[in-house]
Amino acid sequence: MTKIKKSRLRNILIIVSLFLVLIAYLFLQPHISNALPFIRQYRLNSLINNSIKNKDISAQEFWEFREFYAPGTIKINRPSMTFKSKRITSIETLVDSKSKLKAFVKRSDKWDILFENETNLIAQKDGSTYVYFIKPISEMSRANGFFDYKDKDKKMLENKNWYVFTVINK
Question: Which of the residues 32, 62, 83, 145 has the least number of beta carbons within 10 Å of its own beta carbon?
Fold first, then answer.
């Protein structure tokens, strides 16, 4: 190859590489990618489809989804926590380990239920998606590290489960 062809090929590779890095940045940066409706919809569909496929809402995937779909702020008022953003409101709290999800869910006849079992529910109504789940404390600690497990926290966690209620707006 001549010097001109090598130089031209190198310039094309640099331009393509920069373009790919920019595209990756846009898709991976929560504050930028959530502005694109098709990316938000893809993330929501992915959470729903994975939950249906696995017959469970993954707490870790849920936390990642929430932060990438619409980054927001977290307010902690132990034993509860609230996540608020422009498109998501999520309330997390501790409940008695014997509590059943149906005791917390206010059903609507107009819901389109996408996924449901004893500990998980995903439904849609009027353009909003509702996510409910109850998980053991061990799963909560893996997903969010909400408690630092000092003696005070350990007592608070005894005989408790983690309850999450979330409303997702498009």
Answer: 145
